[in-house]
Amino acid sequence: MAARFVPLGLQRAGAAGRRPCAPSTEPLDTATLVGRMLVHMLGVFAEFERGVIVDRVVSGMEKKASRGQWACR
């Protein structure tokens, strides 16, 4: 039996006013090759987004530390 879920990224894209690439009510069929590929692609984009956020946070912390504005607790 295939897993049925709506990717959060598609919901966010619809909520932000942008048209998602697929209807957010349409489930991904993970029993097919295309469905499994899409799940993996969504995972890759989520991992990339998380990495970008971490880089920005670390960069901001380094900037504040160089100016003496950030103190460790």
UniProtKB/TrEMBL annotation:
Top-level lineage group: Bacteria
Residue stretches making up the Resolvase/invertase-type recombinase catalytic domain: 1-68
Gene3D superfamilies: Resolvase, N-terminal catalytic domain (3.40.50.1390)
SUPFAM superfamilies: Resolvase-like
Matching Pfam families: Resolvase
Xref: InterPro entries: Resolv_N (IPR006119), Resolvase-like_N_sf (IPR036162)
Name of the molecule in the record: Recombinase family protein
